[in-house]
Design a protein that fits this description.
This protein has about 160 residues and is α+β, with helices and mostly antiparallel strands. The chain contains 4 helices and 7 strands. The protein is about 30% helix and about 35% strand.
Amino acid sequence: MAKTVTSSAAFPASPRTLYRMFLDAGEHGAAIGASARIRPRVGGSFSIWEGQLTGRTLLLKPGRMIVQSWRSSTFRADDPDSILVLTFSGDARQGRISLVHVNVPDHDAAGVKQGWSRYYWKPWQAYLAAPGGKGRRAPAPRARTRAQARTRRARAE
């Protein structure tokens, strides 16, 4: 029997910032301390923790809502994907993420419930509270061409 998991947490960042962090592979990975590959568009796939979590983005309401199909490496072959609905609320200084995670296999529900707090909420709160801009590391500059990347590396040396 599938279960529904609900959870919510407050963060020292705006809802728009939290939304962007969830969809940006670099920031998402930095905040949870794990690998993250995310294509931030409807239909885009994601893979977190070296493929332990995978799925697709089903709906985006910029700054307000993300809906994704999710599949954990602990799901059995005959388990259907779960559906994650994240909503973002709050103001410029304090945001909240609330989630409803439906169709979570019964055998995985307790781990999913604990996992949201342990692997997302607590690490995100620590990341955002870290010294130097509330944990928001400036993204590394991205070179537009290989030549620009070589020039930047040469300057850094």
